[in-house]
Design goal:
By secondary structure, the chain is an alpha+beta fold. It contains 11 helices and 9 strands. The radius of gyration is 20 Å and the shape is globular.
Length: about 325
């Protein structure tokens, strides 16, 4: 019992409060439970094997076949990531069948996305609306960042309830997150900076030195939705790794001059009060890596503020800590 408890604690430390991948072997097949359904295969030895097949199953055979028929340069971003991941994993197999893989940008992007999506479905939160947005090239970037935000909240021990976007009477946050221990509720907004020629966006990618570092409008747009609960904003700055220091500075423990000035300006624009209780800026530049280049490092900075009706307590601290768990993808199927 102590050993199982220790294994569970290790899982939470690495992957948060998402359920361990439940799997069983039967008649030469590996069965994996995903929410209320099962998938199986004779070839899954490790969790990345399962994740390689998981996204095509979720997106559907018809959609996947349609992507195969397209010219290589027109295929969906997720399709391209999976192809790159397959090539990387196959190249890492030695003569004895042992596989050692150092993640490149495509491998890191695909496996992180697939594990996040699995966690969402395993918590019965994957619906047709989100799937349609993920499949649509122009909507993919925003939906991808929403997947990141939802998975982060799940890792932090929150329950998620999406707001009804079909209600035209008011604007809505992406979802409401309720901390299972404290009961605190937050309205969560996911905002991602769009750039031409990046992550399926139309246009030609800009030179790194000419990228615009303007994020105030995205923060104000989130605040303008007048959310029902204290607001948490996840903001994807979408920068190449070598450009991220302009926003994040060189010391991750100290807010950069840019972030300090940005927050001061937002506070002044809202009557001297922050419109959010937590703002998390992330830069996860998988998609800026050159082919076969190692997965670039990430940048993260979170700001927690005082706000009427809540405090910087256990719930926000759990959310703060869960952001750092992104990209931790298990390899072995758990035995506990």
């Amino acid at each position: 019992m102590r050993q199982k408890q220790q294994e569970q604690e290790r899982w939470i430390g690495q992957y948060g409060h998402v359920r361990p991948v439940i799997a069983a072997d039967h008649l030469g097949k590996k069965f994996v439970a995903i929410g209320n359904r099962l998938e199986y295969s004779e070839t899954w030895k490790f969790i990345p094997d399962f994740l390689l097949d998981y996204v095509p199953h979720v997106f559907g055979k018809d959609w996947w076949d349609a992507e195969v028929a397209k010219p290589e340069g027109e295929r969906h971003q997720v399709f391209q990531w999976r192809v790159g991941c397959l090539r990387r994993m196959r190249a890492g197999v030695d003569a004895n069948g042992k596989r050692t893989v150092t993640a490149d940008g495509m491998t890191g992007a695909y496996l992180s996305f697939a594990f996040n999506l699995f966690a969402i479905e395993d918590n019965s939160r994957l619906d047709d609306v989100l799937l349609r947005r993920l499949k649509h090239p122009e909507q993919f970037q925003g939906a991808l960042h929403e997947v990141f935000a939802e998975a982060t909240c799940l890792r932090a021990g929150f329950a998620i309830e999406r707001e009804d976007e079909r209600d035209p009477a008011t604007r809505h946050a992406e979802f409401t997150a309720t901390h299972k221990i404290t009961g605190e509720r937050f309205s969560v907004e996911a905002k991602s900076k769009h750039r031409p020629g990046v992550l399926g966006q139309a246009g030609v990618a800009q030179p790194h030195e000419k990228l615009r570092l303007t994020y105030g409008r995205l923060i104000n747009d989130a605040a303008a939705k007048n959310p029902m609960h204290p607001l948490v904003i996840f903001l994807d700055t979408n920068l190449p790794f070598r450009s991220a220091h302009h926003v994040y500075g060189n010391d991750p423990a100290v807010p950069s001059r840019y972030i300090t000035e940005l927050c001061k300006r937002i506070c002044n624009e809202h009557g001297g009060q922050y419109p959010f209780v937590m703002l998390t800026l992330t830069n996860i530049p998988h998609h800026y890596a050159a082919p076969h280049e190692n997965d670039p490092p990430r940048h993260v900075h979170s700001i927690m503020t005082e706000h009427p009706g809540t405090n910087k307590g256990k719930a926000l601290r759990a959310l703060y800590n869960a952001v750092a768990l992104y990209g931790n993808t298990p390899n072995e199927f758990p035995t506990f």
